[in-house]
Amino acid sequence: MDIRQQQHVNERDYVLFPWSVQSKVNPINIVKGEGIYFWDDKGNRYMDFASQLVNLNIGFNHPKVIKAIKEQAEKLCYIAPSFGNEARAKLAKKIVEITPSNISKCFFTTSGADANENAIKIARFFTGKQKIIARYRSYHGATFGAISVSGDPRRFAAEPALNGIIRVLDPYCYRCPFDKEYPQCHIECAEHVREIIQFENPDSIAAMIIEPITGSNGIFIPPVEYMKRIREICDEYGILLIADEVMTGFGRTGEWFGVNLYGIEPDIMTMAKGCNSGYVPLGIVAVSSKIAEYFEDKMLYCGLTYSGHPLACAAALATIEAYEEEGIIENARAMGNLLTEYLKKIKMNHICVGDVRNAGLFGCIELVKDRKTKEPLCPWNGSSAIMDRIKEELWNEGLYLYIRWNYIFLAPPLIINQQQLEEGMKLVDEKLHMVDKLIS
Ligand code: PLP
What keywords are annotated for this sequence in UniProt (predicted)? Predict the structure, then answer.
């Protein structure tokens, strides 16, 4: 019997669902996607304001990418990574072209987490040092090494984690951990990193890993001086800078990469998600020419069965072609500017809104019980009935977005148009009126 033709299978009976207490899982079957919309098996349509997991940058079912996957599948579905692979070669060349000028070679993985795993290994091999600096409000993936360098509370369940991880406070201007205000603060959050480096022995630290703009911990957009200072501090102490571009890469911020907003060159860049919009799993570790040269006469102790998978690489090449040919990154910038305007209005009109932040189509509304005290509407690492209600009501009205703690994230596919953005933001605005009433 053809198992694909059998009667409906209850997924809950056979699948362990991620990040879930299994008995509470009640999956909605999604059967179709097109552009920024997807449909469940009852025919309900949803507008995707989260790009699924901030990866579906070009939207569902882009014909060019589907065609490229089909053509590659007919030619060569898989080849071991030690053989030459045309799709991988072309993709690596393209990545080197679109990343900062110091980046010269790529190692391919299958996700963001294992890109970060391999970046950490490469940083340790290259420097001969072991410790890694990471920020508290960060997420770098769920595998053991990647979750160990994450600050996100999702790491708690994996602890005690990898040895030698040093955590530092974040450039979270709205709730400055140093109780300062930009620009009078003299970027104390960066100077704090310098102090921690000294306390921890700079000669033992291999790398610092950062998201150029913090993603799932709340969209923190550091001042340009912060990133420049961090780059200088790393150089001063011989510490590599790893930019985790898994969410910020490939147009999300209105630039090819988050680091472009700051004009800095990281030593290592990790990427995944938007590189092929998630059509086929793929991660990338891109390294500077200095690091690439180091491995010319030394073993690179990294490898994966699916490294440089031809289907994933072909999908990424077609996705990058779509970004370029269809002006998708330009559109993200233009729609991002509109989003900034909507967010300004939202902040003006709602007492429940403490702060709004966005870079391109990477945005967040931070909800508070009281604007003066900034008490969050929902505690860090907690949940609240109001936040759950916002999410549920918006879903019922056909808008899917990512809500976590007291943050409403806004990260639609980069192909969204003005009318669609307006429609989604109107629904969000209406919900915030409800919250204003509930807290007043
Ligand atoms: N890095 C960042 C910044 C992320 O946001 C994520 C996932 O959300 C990851 C790494 C992990 O990527 P993946 O889930 O593909 O392993």
Answer: Aminotransferase, Pyridoxal phosphate, Transferase
